[in-house]
Amino acid sequence: MPELVLVTGGSGYIAGWAVVELLRRGYDVRTTVRSADREHTVTEAVSSEVDPAGRLSFAICDLTSDEGWDDALKGVDRVLHMASPLGLSSDGPDAMIAAARGGTLRVLRAATAAGVRRVVMTSAANAASPSSYATEGVTDETLWTDPEDPTLIPYRRSKTFAERAAWEFIESHDGPTELTTVLPGAVFGPVLTPDTTGSVGIVGRMVSGRMSGVPRIGLEVVDVRDLVDVHLRAMTSPAAAGERFLATGEFLWMADMARTLREGLGEHGRRVPTRQVPDVAIRLLARFRDPSLREITPALGRRNRHSTEKARILLDWQPRPARRTVLDCAESLIAHGAV
Q1: Burial class of residue 230, CB neighbours in 10 A (0-12, 13-18, 19+)
Q2: Which residues, in sequence order, are bridge partners of residue 30?
Q3: What mean pLDDT comes out for the span 228-239?
Q4: Has UniProt tagged this entry with the keyword Glycoprotein (predicted)?
Q5: pLDDT one-digit tens code per residue, 12-23
Q6: For the chain, domain boundaries
């Protein structure tokens, strides 16, 4: 019998690709969605890449509620916990932190009660970064972000608190369930559907011309397909038990991304902005006209990078070139009519 893998948040960008790849590799998959009306959307998206007939099932669960998690984990061999409650920052940073931490603990309690062999949790490279945005250099998984740093944006704090809570829970648990965490960078690549684009909206805004210029921000670009691959390696490798793995990719300034798109997309790249917006202009806009920019201003000019040597050595993981990922992302958005 094929192993049954639970993927949390099946309607999400990364989780959708995880469902696809698990089915390709012969696993049965159960995925959580917050409401039954999302089941058709997920099935349709997955079907664009692989036939899910008879091997994909659903569980109705919400990370902010205890209801349904025990049933969702029944008979499950392994878990990819990829869901994270986003869009809650309007309720204040404490609400986002509580939701991320509480959701992680709900999944782990149900998983350990069901005797799941291993849980692989998607954290973020921002949970293993120097607190100071001014810091340069290369860091690895031994570093933990200080969640009490008052300069951190709510998302960084929530991911750090959630991963900390996961490790503390497993350390206090005496059962057979193992934990591994994967810490990705900026996730791009092709989309399954124009309705679930995750972080690739940045590329969409560039290609559509909705950005008049690019800020001086650098991203460690990882392809969604490579990110799913490292999750599956971490799910099965004996060497991955009890380990954190950074899964970042090549460092690109947004200006580099823009040039790649402008040069690689031909006629479709004509609206991509190549002008770099001065840091002072971004800060002024954030202060007086667009408060949403305040969360990115600390990252202006920041060059801190992460080492993926651990994933390369222990999991034999090799991500593809970042520029290829950026182009694949844009071409997929164009093909889906999303730009």
Answers
A1: buried
A2: 6, 57
A3: 98
A4: no
A5: 999 999 999 999
A6: 4-335
